[in-house]
Amino acid sequence: MAAAHSPLDGVAAAAEGALRALHGCFAAVSVWERERGRLRVLVNAGERGSDEERFPADESYPVHNFPEVAEFLHEEWVGGRPHAWVESLERPASAGDSSPAPHRIEVLRRRHRGSCVIAPIVLHGRAWGELYVARPLGAPVFGRADADFATVLAAVTAAGIVQNERLEEARRLAYTDPLTGLGNRRAVDARLDEAVERHLADGTVVSLVVCDLNGLKRVNDTLGHAQGDRLLERFGSLLSLCGARLPGALAARLGGDEFCLLTVGPPADEVVRAAEELCLRARRLELGEGVACGIASTGDPIGPVRTARRLFRLADAAQYRAKAAGAEKPVVAGRDGGREDPVVRLADRPPEPPRTERRRIRGRRP
Predict the structure, then answer these.
(1) Does residue 96 register a pLDDT over 80?
(2) Distance of CA 312 to CAs 173, 266, 326, 333, Å?
(3) Cys-Cys crosslink for 84: which of 102, 151, 323, 343, Cβ 3.0 to 4.6 Å?
């Protein structure tokens, strides 16, 4: 589980490990969804039936099919854990104290399995789900020692799930702005590098919108930083709302009063329309003075974009032009835009002077 690349892969590793350890033919890990009153299967391992997928999209069962574990949904354990039990076609609930579960027996029969052991997975003192391992017809039926071992395996699984949750939370915090809940600069850099690589590989359109929130310093100085934070949060919500129009867009706060929107796939015109809506909504905010917005997209005539840094420089230059012009609409690199219709073109080197001017320069004497 520790070597898994995702929480679901970790759960799959637990199921496969329990399958081998208990000499079963099939194993599953499921989660109890209290709010929906159902047991949802996360992973099926081993010899699966025709209706069993490795990672089911929506394989779930209502709680009332499992009366033997209904108590686990309400009870909390302090200093102890519920014990695993066994169900079999020969001796229902023979290795535990639970009453027979007709649904489990019917499933064993339908899938040609002879017995199963069920171990509740407990996290933070509450039942999180269950570990289920089955053996085929004709194989030795699970006994008390197997139930004891399954209880230990469920505890190990629970520890692995908790560790994965902590790692996921650490990853989330590392890539999230704590004030707005948007992505942060680290998230943008990582996604933009991947996006440019994809653009170079297959021509996918990559667009970057860079925004500078106007009036934040005035709000901080006159109304206090609490109101400034409120302005940042409200604009962050607007950015997320407008970005939702663009599939897969990443809305982020770069730091201070700077924000951005990164898209991979949508045409440049759609990105510009979303940015125009953002500018319009930002002007209507109770606090602040609107937003200066610059856009750079590989779908526009901005020259070759081989690095994330170049696209960022283009979008940033467009944003600075919008700021200087007091533009109420986005300024787009490679296009006309802004109050005075400036054209933003950022080259790797300064443009050469006109031919007549070059002649005069060459003709001068030191």
Answers:
(1) no
(2) 24, 18, 21, 11
(3) 151
